[in-house]
Prior knowledge:
By secondary structure, this protein is α+β, with helices and mostly antiparallel strands. It has helices spanning about 30-35, 165-170, 175-230, 235, 260-280, and strands at about 5, 15, 25-30, 45-55, 60-70, 75-80, 90-100, 105-115, 115-130.
Amino acid sequence: MAFWPCYSSSEPFTHGTTNNAALNGLRWAMNADTLGVPVVPGMEVNGVLYRYTAVKEVEDPFKVTVSNENTSGGFIFSETDDWSGLPGNTINKFVPVELSRIGLWGDGAITTEGQGRVEDASVIYTFRIDECFAPENNPDCPGFIDPNQFVVATPDIEIYDSLSDENVLNTLEPTDPDLYEDKEEEADSGDEEDEDKKGDMEKALAAAQNALTLANTLSQDALVNAINATANISSYYAARIDGGAYKETQTLVDSHLPENRKGLRNGLAQQLLHEKMVDSQYR
Length: 283
């Protein structure tokens, strides 16, 4: 079989093969890094080509299984070789599978059962890509929609330049020479007025600054007084709690309490012991 990519003019499919998925170990994931090809929508697996060397003794039981999990549960591919009673050797095997989306192919693995080991493993997948899986991306596919048909032409917008408008220029540039003379006289006479206004403005600003300073001082005093009022507990001293005398309501019916003979005996025994200790110390 040939595993080089080929192209068909009659079918919108691209065929190809992956790299060795078992290059870095006997378990692998079905992603672009492991397979060596982009995993794209419309990619379908149609076969598995694997090779490995079984190292074992002839009389030892030994089985090797190459499989892939199904992302929906179970296995989507599983092939077992029974080497029991056979000498170790290298096997090359191609197993065609029913076309299935790459999204269904979960992690792959080579597992063993019995006495022996696997060396020089190689697992390659054959696939095809349906170029018309997303027809909007391929103009050769039926159902292709040209996105350019939805582009709306941008209308030409004329930008209005007010400085090029003759009416605006006539308004901004007076042509009466008497008007220039009047403006100069007003400017000369306005200098003195500006000086007076400047002085009045400085006085007003100074008064405003003084007022702000005074207001800030008053606000700070009010804040300090509010804090001190919080710690004032004189109101608690003046508080009075309503109440009165709570008279005894329980009465003792029998006012005579009998002698506790057991306690009397204990007291007498302690007294005798005490006197004995004192006499002992005295002697």
